[in-house]
Amino acid sequence: MFVMKLTAIQLNIVQRLMKMLLPLLVVLCAMHFIFDFYALHLTSLLDLYGDVNPMLSLYPKTQP
Description:
Blueprint: H1 2-46
């Protein structure tokens, strides 16, 4: 009986932690994907020939 009560309390704590951490995890994942999209795609489209950042350019300048 004591083991059952202890596991129920632990499950309650785990459920509370999941309810608190799950939205935070979703927000962090969304921010991560949005940042990756802007950093890779938007910067590459605005900086096609590597004037600002050669590492992100789609068409790097060829050396003469």
